[in-house]
Design brief:
This protein is of the alpha/beta class and 302 residues long. It folds into three domains: 2-85, Winged helix-like DNA-binding domain superfamily/Winged helix DNA-binding domain (Arc Repressor Mutant, subunit A), CATH 1.10.10; 90-161 and 270-301, D-Maltodextrin-Binding Protein, domain 2; 163-269, D-Maltodextrin-Binding Protein, domain 2 (3-Layer(aba) Sandwich), CATH 3.40.190.10. It is built from twelve helices and twelve strands. It has helices at 2-15, 18-25, 29-43, 59-86, 99-104, 106-116, 129-137, 183-186, 199-210, 227-235, 249-253, 283-293; strands spanning 48-51, 54-57, 91-97, 120-126, 143-146, 155-169, 180-181, 190-194, 219-224, 241-244, 258-262, 267-276. The strands form three sheets. Strands 3, 4, 5, 6, 7, 10, 11 and 12 form an eight-stranded mixed sheet that branches. It has a two-stranded antiparallel sheet with strand order 1-2. It has a two-stranded parallel ribbon with strand order 8-9. A hairpin with a 2-residue loop joins strand 1 and strand 2 (54-57). Helix 1 (2-15) crosses helix 3 (29-43), helix 1 packs across helix 4 and helix 2 (18-25) packs across helix 3. The longest helix has 28 residues, at 59-86. The chain is elongated.
Length: 302
């Protein structure tokens, strides 16, 4: 029973919430409270401070959390060892993906992975690059698939897919019939961009700077939190944008949006998978990395 209580305690600490821990572990919130109370009664000391719906560790809680992490790693190592012995890949894989990857790449990757390893349960969180990297650093994701540049001493990055950003305009825009435009023409157009912290925006700004265009000179009329919202705003004639070609495949096919290339050079970027060098990788995580590393296969369907 103690091991279960410690694993529940670990989930509450990492989620900073009883309700979110309950969703993660698929048990009720009252059951979470009972486990935590039993743990505090067992040791005769308060482990968590609960104020304004927030949960924080006491000094005793910080000490116990380290043991809970070690216990969790032992379970993962045991699970991996047994899975390798019987050839079966099972367990729970926590994935994070940025919006473009989550919407246009991961469905194919996960579908292919599940066809190979149907016993693995997957949980997917979609957020911008900044948040996904932070969650990998905090050990709350097994793998994070990101589209923007990132660096942290605790994470390892591997390339797994090549993408290109293009200018997108509505079909009635003066540029709709053109194959390409110069970057110097962009500053005269109303621009719709993703939020700060988005990989798409970071890559766009870096490419503009490399061609001598200051992103601050763009006539930004709107910042939006998803690629889908950006596309809808462009369709409505509110401005133009620069987003992934993957995101406009269907719209281009049905002439809902038009792709226009940058004349000076392609705005290419590499999608990467991030994992924490200090976090034990389960058999499920290792096999998903293997799928990402495969040439062809699911990637040809994108």
């Amino acid at each position: 029973m103690l091991d279960t209580q410690l694993l529940v305690f670990k989930a509450v600490v990492e989620k900073k919430s009883f309700s979110q821990a309950a969703r993660l572990l698929h048990i009720s919130q009252p059951a979470i409270s009972v486990h935590i109370q039993s743990l505090e009664d067992r040791f005769g000391i308060r482990l968590l401070d609960r104020t304004n719906r927030k949960v924080s560790l006491t000094e005793a809680g910080k000490v116990l959390y380290n043991y809970a992490v070690q216990l969790s790693k032992l379970y993962e190592q045991a699970e991996k060892a047994m899975a390798e012995l019987n050839g079966m890949v099972k367990g729970h894989l926590l994935l994070g993906g940025t919006l473009t990857i989550g919407e246009y790449v991961l469905p194919q990757a996960i579908g292919y992975y599940k066809s190979l390893y149907p016993e693995v349960e997957l949980t997917l969180e979609i957020a911008n690059t900044e948040r996904i990297v932070r969650r990998v650093v905090q050990h709350t994701l097994d793998l994070g698939l990101i589209e923007g540049p990132a660096s942290h001493p605790d994470i390892i990055l591997e390339d797994f897919f090549q993408d290109e950003l293009v200018v997108v305009v509505p079909p009635n825009h003066p540029w709709a019939g053109r194959e390409s435009v110069s970057v110097n023409e962009l500053t005269g157009q109303p621009f719709i961009v993703r939020e700060i912290g988005s990989g798409t925006r970071t890559v766009m700004e870096e490419n503009l700077r490399s061609l001598g265009v200051d992103p601050a000179n763009l006539k930004i009329v709107m910042e939006l939190g998803s690629t889908q919202a950006v596309k809808e705003a462009v369709k409505a004639g509110l401005g133009i944008s620069i987003i992934s070609r993957l995101a406009v495949k269907i719209e281009s096919r049905y002439n809902l949006l038009q792709e226009v290339y940058i004349k000076e050079k392609p705005f290419r970027r590499t999608f990467q998978v991030a994992y924490n060098r200090h976090k034990f990788r389960t058999h499920a995580a290792e096999t998903f990395l293997g799928v990402l590393r495969e040439p062809g296969s699911w990637k040809t369907r994108i």
